[in-house]
Design a protein that fits this description.
Blueprint lengths: L2 H8 L12 H30 L4 H32 L8 E4 H12 L4 E6 L3 E4 L1 H17 L7 E7 L3 E8 L6 H4 L10 H7 L9 H11 L3 E7 L3 E9 L2
Helix pairs in contact: 1-2, 2-3, 5-8
The structure holds adenosine-5'-diphosphate.
């Protein structure tokens, strides 16, 4: 039974952004909208279990899996919101120390453990950074590169250096991003229509990963550029000051 899929399709995904609504109203709107989907799924499965009992093992398994995933999605949403709550109140302290970026990246990719990820260039360089925040930023770019490209396509990471900066690239051969979306993808809760369709049934996507990554990049004077072609893939390039 594919009840989860049916319910997800029932949930209205139209944000209806009127230009005069305030930032706060929109934020509350977006959060409520994102919470409604997992809550609808949980509510629906609980109703079904109540009505049909737990005798059907297939249905029981589907219900438990969907309830668990929905709870995880809500948890990750709440954690991201707490990040912004602290960031907006200047209560998100960074502890910057000299870091070997190549070492950090190498360890990060090893720990991430995806066979699809290939590091093709790894120039040694030192930067001033909070390593934990940097890893969080890498995760956002890498997860997107993997999720927005077919499972048989590799994702390439390159770290090169020039006189005063390192350039770190996340390169995928995925769905790509339309020109008009490139400016908006770093906004909180922004997701392209293509991404919504692709991930409707398989990923918790709320459009917060890149806004968190941008917040971290700004705190490290890192400039992000996006070069993308629809249907071909994307390159997210980070220009990082070296010491
Ligand atoms: P999420 O992935 O949770 O939707 P993000 O903030 O990480 O949120 O990304 C915002 C949007 O940017 C995505 O919904 C997608 O439309 C687009 N995007 C980001 N990275 C990529 C990528 N590598 N390929 C295609 N689209 C991407």
């Amino acid at each position: 039974m594919q009840l989860g899929i049916r319910w997800r399709k029932l949930v209205c995904r139209n944000h209806g952004r009127a230009s005069e609504i305030t930032y706060q109203q929109r934020f509350v709107n977006d959060v409520s909208h994102e919470l409604r989907t997992p809550l609808t799924i949980i509510r629906g499965y609980v109703d079904i279990l109540e009505r049909y009992g737990v005798e059907d093992p297939e249905l029981f398994k589907e219900a438990v899996t969907s309830i668990k995933t929905s709870a995880q999605n809500m948890q990750s949403l709440v954690e991201n919101l707490l990040f912004f709550a602290r960031a907006d109140q200047d209560n998100q302290p960074l502890i910057k120390v000299p870091v070997d970026l190549d070492e950090l990246l190498k360890n990060f990719v090893e720990a991430y453990g995806s066979p699809r990820v290939h590091v093709t260039k790894l120039a040694p360089c030192k930067i001033l950074a909070d390593a934990e925040f940097l890893k969080r930023m890498f995760t956002a770019f890498l997860e997107n590169a993997l999720q927005y490209s077919p499972p048989d396509k590799p994702v390439t990471i390159e770290l090169t250096t020039s006189d005063d900066a390192a350039t770190l690239k996340f390169i995928d051969r995925g769905i790509g991003i339309a020109k008009e979306d490139c400016e908006k993808i770093f906004d909180r809760f922004y997701r392209s229509d293509k991404a919504r369709t692709k991930l409707e049934n398989d990923k918790n996507s709320v459009g917060l990963g890149l806004s968190i990554a941008k917040w971290i990049a700004d705190r490290h004077d890192i400039k992000i550029s996006v070069d993308s072609t629809l249907g071909k893939g994307s390159i997210f390039a980070l220009k990082i000051p070296i010491i």
